[in-house]
Design a protein that fits this description.
The chain is of the alpha/beta class. The protein has nine helices and eight strands. Helix 8 packs across helix 9.
Length: 255
């Protein structure tokens, strides 16, 4: 069975479809779904989904693309939720310098504050690292946390090795399935299988067979795993077993 290590099941694109999506995922061999929050509103949404569907698990955190909308007491709210509820990780947190660098200082301040909370609560982190990998690594070296996942990884081999040395897994999904994604495919082929987890990032990053504008779904993870197995010229069963184990290693509170 597979674990979708990154799926935004609470996204508005899935409104009214949650039960059908979870059932279809289960029918396709996706046993568990990890739902990272992105802002204050989504805290309650991801918790409710995990209460409704026992095979769904949630992380709590502030996504870097949403921090401009944060209120002054939101970090205290996150601390309260971490203390009150049972998230498997702090996430989705990190840095994103693709959309803008104008709020770089604020992004870094919020990221550091959340790393400190993760350390305080002995939780791993699920991280967004787009166009900001070296900066993310800098702060991970400074504020050591209990591992986790660098989601949608698209860095260099050296950066990948740096994350692995720090105890992190790297998330691969639909982006690697496109013919022009040769760099990601090379990484998927040569990195240690023990360092890789599979994800969809649904409803985003649809695989090539859906097309760039389609709505992604956790049920696509089985075909993503098949693509990954073909890339590495290994059996699908071994890929499924490795990704499952690696996700549990990265997020040990999944039960």
């Amino acid at each position: 069975m597979l674990i979708d290590s990154h799926c935004h099941l609470d996204a508005t694109e899935f409104d009214g479809e949650h039960a059908a999506i979870v059932k279809t995922a289960l029918d396709h061999g996706i046993e568990k779904i990890i739902i990272p929050a992105v802002n204050r509103k989504s805290f309650d949404d991801v918790i409710k989904l995990s209460e409704t569907f026992p095979n769904c698990f949630y992380a709590l955190g502030f996504h870097p693309m949403y921090i401009d909308d944060m209120k002054h007491d939101d970090l205290h709210t996150l601390q309260h939720y971490l203390n009150t509820y049972q998230p498997i990780a702090v996430g989705e947190i990190g840095l994103d310098f693709f959309v803008t660098k104008e709020n770089k200082t604020l992004q870094e301040e919020i990221f550091v504050a959340q790393l400190k909370l993760a350390k305080d609560f002995d939780l791993p982190v699920i991280m967004h690292v787009r166009y900001a990998i070296d900066d993310v690594l800098k702060y991970l070296r400074r504020y050591s946390v209990k591992g986790g996942i660098a989601h949608a990884f698209n860095g260099s081999l050296q950066q990948a090795e740096a994350f692995i040395d720090l105890g992190f897994k790297l998330g691969f999904g639909g982006a690697m399935t496109y013919p022009r994604a040769t760099h990601i495919q090379t990484l998927a082929k040569i990195l240690p299988i023990e360092s890789i987890v599979l994800e969809t990032d649904a409803p985003d990053i649809p695989p090539s067979w859906l097309g760039h504008k389609a709505k992604n779904s956790p049920s696509e993870l089985y075909r993503i795993a098949t693509f990954f197995a073909d890339l590495r010229c290994v059996g699908l069963t071994s890929v499924i077993e490795a990704s499952y184990k690696n996700t549990l290693d990265a997020l040990p509170k999944i039960v």
